[in-house]
Amino acid sequence: MVPESFSPLPPSSIGVSDRMRRARGTDTAPELALRRALHRGGLRYRIQYRPPGLPRRTVDVAFTQAKLAILVDGCFWHACPEHASWPGHNGDWWRAKLEANVARDRDTDRQLGTLGWTVLRLWEHLSTEEMEASVRHALDEIRHSTCLRALA
Ligand SMILES: [Zn+2]
């Protein structure tokens, strides 16, 4: 998920410009691969979903019945602890931008939680199999707890 409010500086190095190009648009390759795998596995979901009550945020893959929100986060834009790299040129500007992205992610998580959603964030560096397993696990957990609530 690429933050909507991003306004890029002119790319100042090849590395940055590469990353920016890869981050453009919302249908990233890891996300598409996950969607294909889920669909093949018989799961149905909404994409680029705007949860009611949260009009300015978009959920990459949403299971609206289970209220499971899946966000596939790019390692660069969302500052993955394993792959975060902080561009040297315009370093302060980038640091502020990336930290703002992370703060916005946490705010999104909190707001989704308030609205009753379970939030599952997946780093784009995970394999499709790992992502799919996490999604299925989360769906199972939600269904299980919904079941227990219904019995109570
Ligand atoms: Zn990563």
Would you kindly provide a written description of the structure presented here, covering whatever features stand out?
This protein is an alpha+beta fold and 152 residues long. It has a single domain (25-151), classed as VSR Endonuclease (Endonuclease, Chain A, 3-Layer(aba) Sandwich), CATH 3.40.960.10. It contains 4 helices and 4 strands; from the N terminus they run ααβββαβα. It has helices at 14-23, 29-40, 91-114, 128-151, and strands at 46-49, 59-63, 68-73, 118-123. A 4-stranded mixed beta sheet has the order 1-2-3-4, with helices on both faces. α3 (91-114) links the parallel β3 (68-73) and β4 (118-123). α2 packs across α4. It is globular, with a radius of gyration of 17 Å. It starts with 13 loop residues before the first helix and ends with a helix. 22% of the residues are buried. Mean pLDDT is 86; it is low at 4-11. Residues 75, 80, 82-83, 123, 125 line the site of zinc ion.
Brief summary of the model shown:
This protein is of the alpha+beta class and 152 residues long. The protein has helices spanning 14-23, 29-40, 91-114, 128-151, and strands at 46-49, 59-63, 68-73, 118-123. The model is unreliable at 4-11 (pLDDT under 50).
Show the helix and strand layout.
Layout: H1 14-23, H2 29-40, E1 46-49, E2 59-63, E3 68-73, H3 91-114, E4 118-123, H4 128-151
Parallel strand pairs: 3-4
Antiparallel strand pairs: 1-2, 2-3
The structure holds zinc ion (ZN).
Keywords:
152 residues; Endonuclease, Chain A; four-stranded mixed beta sheet; binds zinc ion
